[in-house]
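yo

u said u wanted the structure for the complex thing, so here. seqs first:
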Amino acid sequence: MLSSPSLMDTLFQRSLEDLIKGLRLHLPGTPTSNFISKNIEEIKKEIKSTDLNTKSIALQKLTYLHSLYGINMSNWASFHAIELTSSPFFGHKKVGYLAVSISFNSNTEVLLLLVNQLRKDLGSPCEFEVSLALETIGFVINQELAVNLIDNVFVLISSSKSFVRKKAIVTLLRVFEVYPDGIKVCFKRLVENLENGDVGCVSASVGVFCELAMREPRLCLPLAPEFYKILVDCRNNWVLIKVLKVFGKLAELEPRLGKKLVDPVCEHLRRTGAKSVVFECVRTIVSCLSEFDYALRLAVEKIREFLVDDDPNLKYLGLQGLSIVSRKCLWAVVENKDAVIKSLSDADVNIKSEALRLVMAMVSEDNVTEICKVLISYAIKSDPEFCNEILAAILSTCGSNVYELIIDFDWYISLLGEMARIQHCQKGEEIENQLIDIGMRVRDVRPELVRVGRDLLIDPALLGNPFIHRILSAAAWLCGEHVQFTKNPFEVMDALLQPRTNLLPASIRAVYIHSAFKVLSFCLHSYLLPNESASSWVDSDAGEPYLLSESEILETSNSSALNDDQIYEQRVLNLAEGASSIENVLDTNVAQEQSTLPLKKGLFTEESIKNLLSLVETALRPLSGSHEVEIQERVCNILGLIELMQGELPNSVIQGGENFEKGESKASDFIKLVHDAFSEDLGPISLSAQERVPIPDGLLLEENLNNLDKICGDIELPVSTSFSLGRPVSDKHDSVPLFNNHDKDESELSKESTSLLTEHRKRHGLYYLSSDKKEVVSDYYPLANEPETQGNANDVTEDLVKLTEQSFFPKKKPNHVKARPTVVKLDEADGRIPSVTKKLDSANTAISGAVQDVLLGNDTNPYSSQVKPSDKLSSNSKGKEKLHIGQSIELNEHTTVDKSELDSSRPKRNKKHKERKHRSSVKTAEDRDKNGLEDKQTSGHHHTRNKARHRADGDLKVVAQTPVIPDFLL
Amino acid sequence: MIRAVIVMNDQGKPRLLKFYHYQPVEKQHEIIRTIYGVLCSRADNVSNFVNAESIFGPDARLVYKTFATLYFVFVFDASENELAILDLMQVFVETLDKCFSNVCELDIVFNFNKVHTILDEIIVGGQVLETSSSEVVKAVDEISRLEKASNSIMRVPKSISAWQGR
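structre next:
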């Protein structure tokens, strides 16, 4: 009766099972929080009970709720957990330690109260109490605890009970992590455990050394003989895997180990039936024994078995193994290309991306065309996510190292155009950058760029997809900048001003309008100054006028895109032929000059120019009130030009009549100015160009300009008449949120657009360019993103495998129609930015430092048994540590990241306007720069890469030779 | 080393959580939600590996396996072999099966402590210690016997006093 209220509590206390049943009564979805908080209240009372049994049940429940329901107990129940660990009863102790291991961390305040109990339990005669303490130490260890307990744990690693010993060994690893000096004391004993007869202990100590080797392989190098013995003798798969991992690390450091290793590893590979060991052997061989040909053959054979296995796990790992091989010997990948290609259409995303990575590794100058063709066809029929992964892979591979892989740029440009039309394409920004970048770097490809750009621009359906607005922006800019290459400027103008451009974000629309300005000024220039423009075309384009003769234009405007291609190709062929003999060049020049003159007369008639002007005016006049300043300014500029022209044009025509005296009017002077400004060629600009401009004397760049306001506050700045084309950064709001709607309504939208455009044509027919082209405007625009007809996927796959059958073998002599055009590269620094070296974290360095001490102290004879931590060693430790950090940094320095070329090209476009102004001053520096590099790069662009790689190899070897090698092994 | 062992059911409810490097509970549950999101989007016949670098940092690998209504998830780093960990999962599940004879989700729900005991015999401090399920069962039985012994000592006087109390 007197037995206290705690007894009553005990009687009615809910057990853990009751709690769980109560929780389960709540239907899924209904909140359990009330029930839980009621229970927490109970637990809070119960846990204060003096009865250990009540306390233990309460703590059990609390631990359960903490772990699985996220009720944080660490701030109020810690003390009770510690109290329970000191209970004489094993059951309570266990509950206490479980609570500690789940809710404590190394910073828990009451941890110090646990030290004595842990020490007591480590010394307990009951092995299960010892093991409880050891398990808990792993979760809560901090430096103070480690210093206090290391001796007790150390004693246990020579315990006679293997159950305790192996747990003590792995607990030591945790101790070393926070207290590296501990290694000095324990290292010898640990090594002894490697030769222990008990498999559990060997396994545990190999595991510990494997962890140490992962962090600092140098430490384990002197132990190579011991590991070698295990490798040869051991039949336990777990131990074998760990030893192979250790050797994988050691062989990187000490290349001479390979000779010793290769036979036992191959032996295991042949003998074992365990897939895990097979894979580990394969991984060891391909990552560090690849110089042994027969071993590599064997490994690749096993990989092949994995690849054709039905188990997706093995397939995945096989692909991973291949991608390790691919870094050194590509033949292994090429041999298995059918399996790799097939994996591209696997159901598993992991396998698909791994396969994609491998396919990209196979790309070379010779097969890039075929591989891209295959990949694009996969992209078209795969899900949006993987489709974009493919596109990203193509873009980054082809664009790497200033388009090193690309020989036929015309092909690559049309590939980029094709990508834009893929339904799920979201790589607009990347494609935009490459289009612009290529336009700047590769002069010869500009006509093709303009052709692809024009094809994209005239398709109204594309405007409905916000993901490719960036591409359109690039296309518009290219068509404007290089308008002299276009076959029909009127058509481009028509496309730039089509009504659906109102779907574009303001920044991109501004690019459209600015391009329209360029096109307009070009047309006017050609009309007013036909002679000059003809000669300028011929001059600037190395004798190739890109305007077709009149008849050809008529033909092309009516013909399909395919015909366009044919004609274009023929033209390219003509050019190639022409270049072969000087005579021919002269002939064609003469012929073309003759043909261009009538052409311009025919194309740029008074009528057509008038139509053009009124078209532009009608389309843009409403925008002059736009709230977007970029649009408004550009529209005002272009309208200003039109007004000026309309005043002057009739005069000039009357004046000029049939003769060419038009050139003397005011209008033509003005147009000439504008045209000259635009025809200035824009080249790529080095990242460091700005730095090379000498700062003029007396220019203070650092001075604060704040007080300028006072001086010239009342002076109005003159209105700028120049054009600035800001980088068309798409505003945040235009990118994502629109997507869903557009995507859903894609097909509807594009149909709608077709009708919209025709309707617009009907209504404002007067403003459209009329019979000039004599074409019947087709009402039907093919859907831009029309998905491929879904054929049988398997069939397609097989076809593709067949298709690629030959393409992956490097051809002996690539039959390129034409030589690779010059790609302007700027300087070595272009795109190569060394990454910040990263330091090893201090704990690891500390561990390595400590072990270094032990090892260096006795590496003349690693067997010199009992090494006591001598004073000499510890006094050395500081210096050694420093040395060590130095080495690791050295190693890391080679991992310089090649920053992609594209990034560096971005600011160029940005600065364009400024550059134009500063051109005169920059020019000399830049020219020097360009000349030097153009010479170099044709022969040298392969070399630079190899050189870099070579350098890295060389240094690695130097580092690798520093560690001490146990000679008896070699 | 092994970084975490997670058992959750096919509704994403955690049944066993063990993180070998401390994570606050809130973080643990966030991780569970992320992993569950990935797992339930995967089809049945695909590989058992998931790229976990975004969740656990570089070099982390995640292997999972489905048994009836439960996902078993192991997270580990480069010093473990992927296929060996798959075998280890098998060992873990076999051991559970031996301890509970025909294990099902309910056994794991109601035997929170025992499941932890079993796991602690297999993995200590992130290192795999024991891969033979019979050895584990032997140790676990011994531990349960010890626990019961201490409990029964407690129970006797309690039941007497309870009886006296009436």
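Confidence is low (pLDDT under 50) at residues 155-166 of chain B. The radius of gyration of chain B is 18 Å.
cya
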